[in-house]
């Protein structure tokens, strides 16, 4: 590294340049070539130095400084670990860049789509074709079950799933019960209620007893908060009454609308009516080959008009009742659940009873 000796030369007051290599003075530059003129102030004139010499001297200086830094104690070392451009940005620049925001949006899109699909209303899936398909599948499953009596656990579970699939359509969900649509006669296609299955079990054990069609007849067309419901059971005794419809068991009840889908039944009476004797019994009472007497005619008329009723309510006893949930209702299908007692009911629209 060249060092400048600013001791004045005794000859021309020009600082002599001493080389590190040979220690010789370069006084030849004192002739005035390329020398900067001194100011009137006490400034020192500087001789020009070759660039190669300066470049080599700067490299050696950096090596010496690096050697000194490594030789210093560890507590005094303060070497930068990261370059200035890699340091943490200021607080104002902590905002998400545009590529990062776009990446987050791309990652969020599947989640948003899944949430929208889960929260989407069922109106899209409850098209008329889909509604009819679900109802048809439900009726197909209950077709060979003998109205619920001849079902196994697996078949009953499949029917329950089909019932829930129809209930999910939510016809009238959140809307007050349409009593005008409920009014009419409904035929039982399937049930899991024990109080109805016991009738089928009795008919299975008693060879002479036959259980025919079962209906629910609602009378509430011009009502706003309730009406009357009649459970109609057609039954018969073999060889004595007409097949399947020899007599009618009628259970009448009043119902009140408690909420949008719940009604409360209050039973009033149980009656047996519409007895239709078989032709064999008619021939026994009044033989066709003999003229019918007045007595025989009176007996036949009495049997036809016979009606036995037993009231189940009165001033001294409380009428039994039950809560009934109408889970689905449209123009040709009615689904209901007995609350508390359990059991599901599947009805289809039927012709009015005479």
How does this structure look, described?
This protein has 354 residues and is of the alpha+beta class. It has 8 helices and 11 strands. An 8-stranded antiparallel beta barrel has the order 3-4-5-6-7-9-10-11. α3 (128-141) runs antiparallel to α4. The protein is globular and about 105 Å long.
Short description:
InterPro entries: PAP (IPR039633), PAP/fibrillin_dom (IPR006843). It comes from Urochloa decumbens. With about 350 residues, the protein is α+β, with helices and mostly antiparallel strands.
Secondary structure layout plus pairing:
Blueprint: E1 3-8, E2 15-18, H1 51-71, H2 98-119, H3 128-141, H4 153-167, H5 179-182, E3 184-191, H6 194-205, E4 209-219, E5 226-237, E6 247-257, E7 262-273, H7 279-285, H8 294-305, E8 308-311, E9 321-329, E10 333-339, E11 344-349
Antiparallel strand pairs: 1-2, 3-4, 3-11, 4-5, 5-6, 6-7, 7-8, 7-9, 9-10, 10-11
Helix pairs in contact: 3-4
Q: How would you sum up the major sheet?
A: 8 strands, antiparallel, barrel
**Count of individual helical segments:** 8
Radius of gyration: 53 Å
Structural class by SSE content: alpha+beta
Q: Compute the average pLDDT.
A: 74
Overall body shape: globular
The beta-strand count equals: 11
Sequence of secondary-structure elements: EEHHHHHEHEEEEHHEEEE
Low-confidence stretches: 4-47, 74-86, 91-96, 110-125
Distance between the termini: 128 Å
Proportion of residues in extended strands: 25-35%
Q: Enumerate the strands of the largest sheet in spatial order, edge to edge or round the barrel.
A: 3-4-5-6-7-9-10-11
What's the helical proportion of residues?
A: 25-40%
Region (Disordered): 1-43
Subcellular location: Plastid
Protein name: Plastid lipid-associated protein/fibrillin conserved domain-containing protein
Pfam family, one: PAP_fibrillin
